[in-house]
């Protein structure tokens, strides 16, 4: 059996981003809370899976930080690739 590649902190962040992409949460809630949750959980996320944590911090964080001029749909589209990469990493489908 394959080792689980994530823990509760990464699972929380994956679900948090998924809800925004799936239009289950508002952009305001997402953009206000993303960096707070990332800062709060990053060290634990890193110990759960360093590669996934770095993608959240670097790629997804960068998109969120520079999303002021994006529409909601453009932001959701921009988040899909790094979200899918994190998902593939934690499910063992990447590399």
How would the blueprint of this fold be written?
Elements: H1 8-21, H2 27-48, H3 50-65, H4 72-91
Distance between the termini: 17 Å
Largest sheet: none
Q: What series of H and E elements makes up the topology? A: HHHH
Report the mean per-residue pLDDT as an integer.
Answer: 94
Q: Flag low-confidence runs.
A: none
Q: Give Rg in angstroms.
A: 13 Å
Beta-strand share of residues: under 5%
Question: How many extended strands?
Answer: 0
- Structural category is mainly alpha
Q: Into how many domains do the coordinates divide?
A: 1
Fraction of residues in helix: over 70%
Instruction: Please give the count of helices.
Output: 4
What's the shape?
A: globular
3D structure, described in words:
- By secondary structure, this protein is mainly α.
- It has one domain.
- It is built from four helices and no strands.
- Helix 2 (27-48) runs antiparallel to helix 3 (50-65).
- The longest helix has 22 residues, at 27-48.
- It is globular.
- 21% of the residues are buried.
């Amino acid at each position: 059996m394959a080792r689980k590649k994530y823990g509760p902190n990464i699972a929380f962040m994956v679900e948090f981003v998924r809800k925004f992409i799936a239009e289950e949460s508002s952009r305001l809630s997402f953009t206000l809370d993303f960096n707070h949750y990332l800062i709060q959980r990053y060290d634990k996320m890193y110990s759960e899976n360093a590669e996934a944590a770095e993608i959240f911090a670097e790629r997804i964080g960068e998109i969120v930080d520079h999303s002021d001029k994006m529409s909601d749909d453009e932001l959701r589209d921009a988040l899909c690739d790094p979200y899918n990469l994190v998902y593939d990493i934690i499910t063992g489908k990447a590399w």
